[in-house]
Amino acid sequence: MKQISGLKVVLTLALIAVGLFGMGRLDSTAHAAGITYYISSSVGNDSNSGTSTSAPWKTISKLNQTTFQPGDTILFKKGDVWTGETLYPKGNGNYAAGNWITVSTYSSGNRPVISPGSSQPAAIRFDDTSFTGGWKITGLDIQNAKMGIYAYKNRTSSANGLWLEDLNFTNITGNNIGASTNPGFYDAVFCSQSITVHSVNHVTIKNVTSSYSDMGMLLDWGDDITVDNVRLDHHYRYGVWMANLTNSVMKNSKVLYSGFRDGMTWGTAGIQFNNNANTNIEDTEVAYTQAPNKSPDGVAIDFESDNVNCQALRVNVHDNQGSAFLIMENPDWGTLGKQTGTHIKDGTFANNGLRGVAGFIRYYNNSGNTSTVSGNTILKASSSQMLNDIGGVDSWPSGWTASNNTIGTVIPASGFSSLIDDSSGSITYSGSWWSGTVAGFFKDSAHSTSTPGSYAEYTFNGTGISWVSSVNSNLGRADVTIDGVFAGSVEQYSTSGQAIVTLFQKTGLANGTHTIRVTLRGDKSPQSGMASMDVDAFVVLQPNVTGAIDDSASGITFAGSWWGGSASGYYNQTAHASSTAGNYAEVSFTGTGISWIGAMNSAHGRADVYLDGNLVNTVDTYARDGILQVRLYSATGLSYGSHTLKIVVRGDKLPASSNVTIDVDAFVVS
Question: What is the DSSP-derived secondary structure letter of residue 312?
């Protein structure tokens, strides 16, 4: 009896255990640890076992029915695409034991694509309550989503262990706020992000790219976060926001064109720090941060409130609309006097504060911050620019130690520029292209393509080059290479159409022969009607040559009312300008050729050019983005002897221009 009773107890407990565990996963599949699962949208079937390449599952929905165990692996087939689905990972790995649940790829070809669309909350979303960590995700392409990878834990608990590597994000937009509006503060905080990590410790984000999305990353509340070799390029709102982190680092990364196109009513930044401790930015480039639609700031790095012992080490910060650094205590969420130890060491800073603010540091509401600035090279955009703005005073912050810094001014690119129209036979067009007359473009002509992989290539001699074209609501994206090396991506989409826009610029090349290629990618902003690309002109920067006659020379006649004086960035830093129709500049020379050097910008108009008394050309000097030291007109092959060149202000302009100004920088005689 006792044996029978004992057997009954054992059987009863076993049945209870089976019942309890069965009830615990009515919607899940039980399995042993260490299993590899395969998923293919092209050849899979959800009735398959999912455990071999010959019997993969088909849908992400099938994955969502399975609770995975430490050591399991989920492999997405390369070349496949999943649309309209969100992956909700179930189960947890063991970070402490190094026993991850891994999401990766199999087969060959392009990365697997998860493209959930606007009807889904994210591409990959971890559950707030059940997620405890131990997931590793690699090798995916995530696009067209309101959020990319979303791992958001409530602050009442934390997860441990998340590894994100070799991932690409694009078109992560549309969460809560419109893509073309300027949101208020609370809406902007919750804009779309490629990566969102909240209340997760021990995170690695490595070899990741994100582009043409609202925000690259939001990393909030965590310890031991490492961001390594990440490229955040062309983000409409922000680059990366790092807040409430300890013992963390962002290194070997690039944050480019943050705030591009849309901006924020409360300000834009490449990298923002809030309430971090012992967290650094190291060996990272932050450049071209924008401040559109009346957005404030446009700063590269924003130390905004309560950061303690956070450093910027060996960073390369250049060409940002705002200052290199904004260092402040924000009264809305900061504690006055808490932020300290903001050390800036061994970095390179050049051409920042382009919206007319200090080039290096803007600093306020930050008393008691004792920090060090040392070993840096700091080049202001101009000699008159403030280095630091400390409550309107150009000085170092009180209590800071500044030593061994080299401070100077950016030297403008030395040379004259030549415009090469799209119609030039020296440009090679590969693929399918349309060409023809387009009013308002340079010389009223353009080339256009909608075929991915089509490219325009131009070989030139000089030290720099720019690609000039248009932006409008039916254009997409292009990649640019210089001498076969990737040099950047360009977004041609804009809600408003504009012509003669500088889309890409590269300077500082060794004087010699180089080749630029612009290639249509085939993707676009979700708001764009097409994924097309236009080519209007290339601008080649060539070294200054002998024979240049500066506008200040006595041999030039300026008839009528002309302004003349100092002009930063012009040849010899001087120029003459007039907006009065009929005014002219005239120079006589002896030689076989001559070039008129001047500027193109958004307030310039048209001029008639006369050579030896004959009208030879009408030149339009409008460009949305300013281009200095341009060869606006050139004559070559003249018979050797005395000649006269006259530039006459016409008084008319393109509709996009705000004025009819013409300027004269120099003449070059050959």
Answer: E
Q: Closest by alpha carbon to 562, among 542, 544, 582, 589?
A: 582
pLDDT of residue 89: 97
What would the two tokens of residue 222 be?
């965590």
What is the CB neighbour count within 10 angstroms for residue 24?
11
Beta bridge partners of 436: 446
- Quote the distance between the C-alpha of residue 164 and its chain's center: 20
pLDDT bracket for residue 547 (50, 70, 90): low
CA distances from 219 to 8, 147, 193, 237 (A): 54, 14, 10, 15
The mean predicted confidence, pLDDT, of the chain is: 88
* Residue found by looking up tokens 């490492």 in the block: 226
Q: How far apart are CA 327 and CA 79, in angstroms?
A: 46
Mapped onto helix, strand or coil, the DSSP state of residue 658 is coil
Any residues with CB less than 8 A from the CB of 357 and at least 6 apart, and which? Answer: 322, 323, 386, 389
Q: Which two tokens stand for residue 14?
A: 């076993």
Residue 549 exposure: Cα atoms within 13 Å on the Cβ side: 20
Residue 151 class from Cβ within 10 Å (0-12 exposed, 13-18 middle, 19+ buried)?
buried
Strand 498-506 with 325-328, pairing: unpaired
CA atoms within 13 A on the CB side of 118: 10
**pLDDT-based confidence at residue 545 (cuts at 50, 70, 90):** low
% pLDDT > 70, the chain:
91
Residues 6+ apart with CB under 8 A from 351: 318, 319, 359, 379, 381, 410
Q: What is the DSSP string of 518-530?
A: EEE-S---TT-S-
Strand order across the beta sheet in which 548-550 lies:
498-506, 464-471, 537-542, 416-421, 627-635, 594-600, 666-669, 548-550
In this structure, the strands spanning 512-520 and 455-462 are antiparallel
What end-to-end distance do the CA atoms of the chain give, in Å? Answer: 119
Q: Do strands 584-591 and 641-649 pair parallel, antiparallel, or not at all (unpaired)?
A: antiparallel
